[in-house]
Amino acid sequence: MSDQDRAGARGNTGLSSLPVHALLGIISIPGAPASSPWSLIGRRVLYAFALLFIVALIVYVDKGGYSEDLTFIDAFYYSAVSLSTTGYGDITPVTQSARLVNIVIITPIRIAFVILLVGTTLSVLTEDSRKSLQIQRWRKNVRNHTIVIGYGTKGRSAVSALLADGVPANQIVIVDNDKAVLARAENQGLVTVYGNATRAEVLKIAGVTRARAVVIAPSQDDTAVLVTLSVREIAPSAMIVASVRESENQHLLEQSGADSVVISSETAGRLLGLATVTPPVVEMMEDLLSPDEGFSVAERPVAEDEVGANPRHLADIVLGLVRSGELYRIDSPESETVEPGDRLLYIRRVTGEEVK
Fold first, then answer.
1. Hey, which residues does 323 pair with through a beta bridge?
2. What keywords is this UniProt entry annotated with (predicted)?
């Protein structure tokens, strides 16, 4: 049964209550690429036929040492019967040299042949057991992670920004119902969960109840609203950042529990308008928003020697400060003096080494 069939068969089952081995087609933990069972079996079968051919060749070279005059087909038949330990006894070695060859060469090959066949089954079972143990360990230990729902253009950009900001790849979980998209995410070292994020059970196996933040970036606004409602119900304390295409849907996401809403169409539209008048401004905005080399907007705590100072006079270019969870722009009265516990939003220089 394929991963898709396996996952689809569980459509009406509580995913979070399933045993770990039943989640192999849903949760994927990045690691060394493993061969599929069919390719593994196919390779072992080729090795087995190679051993059969080698033994048949050895027997045919010494064909006079057996109970009858052998053709190559007879030698191959003896090889198959002998290596598979069937042993019909219709062809037997009769000379001392033929028996010595069977003892010294064919018997070790027979043992290797059996190990090869048994090892194929063990390898497939061991690989599934390893993945099950890996998933069990991950589900037990994962916490304070970031879940990104939807790995389209917006989701990939969000992940790039998280990675550039120092978030470890193993602390990012991607939820999507497109297997090809999830394979791309797994190649980046990200944990992936296959399923529809509007379902509470899919969110639960992604560890949403212990997540620090959830980025909701589906392609449809109605999906974003449904996912936000589900996440907020299951994880009341998680930070929810959602994206919508149209500004008229912003209030729906805010009412559903989103802490922050990004309007993708209006942001793109403003950049398009600026590009027709002042292209360098758009280039600078792209630079600030991109995780590549250049500048980026970052946040940091205030240093002890900065307390009491005017943020405009600090070494960094400060855009605003965060105090008790509230953001104040640099030109607001609250931003006249830096207080203990404040956090500064500033422009940081990003180098190629930092990105790596």
1. 326
2. Membrane, Transmembrane, Transmembrane helix
Share of the chain above pLDDT 90, in %: 19
Q: What DSSP assignment string belongs to 125-147? A: HHHHHHHHHHHHHHHHH--S-EE
Nearest to 351 by CA among 303, 267, 295: 295
Number of folded domains in the chain? 3
Q: Does 182 share its domain with 310?
A: no
Q: 344 is written with which tokens?
A: 């500064």
Q: What is the CATH number of the domain that holds 176?
A: 3.40.50.720
Cα-only R_g, the chain: 32
The one-letter code for the residue type at 22 is A
pLDDT tens-digit readout, 237-251: 999 999 888 888 889
Task: Give pLDDT, residue 121.
Answer: 65
Tokens 């057996």, located at residue: 66
CA distance 213 to 258: 11
Q: Which two tokens stand for residue 40?
A: 């593994």
Kindly state whether residue 69 falls inside one of the protein's structural domains. yes
Query: Could you give the C-alpha distances from 75 to 59, 71, 102, 195, in angstroms and in order?
Result: 6, 6, 13, 55
Task: Assess if residue 216 is contained within a domain.
Answer: yes
* 341 has pLDDT over 70: yes
Same domain, residue pair 239 and 92:
no
Q: Could you give phi then psi for residue 147, rounded to 5 degrees?
A: -105, 130
* 351 and 217 co-located in one domain: no
The string of pLDDT tens digits covering residues 161-173 is: 888 778 888 899 9
Can you read off the two tokens belonging to residue 34? 């493993």
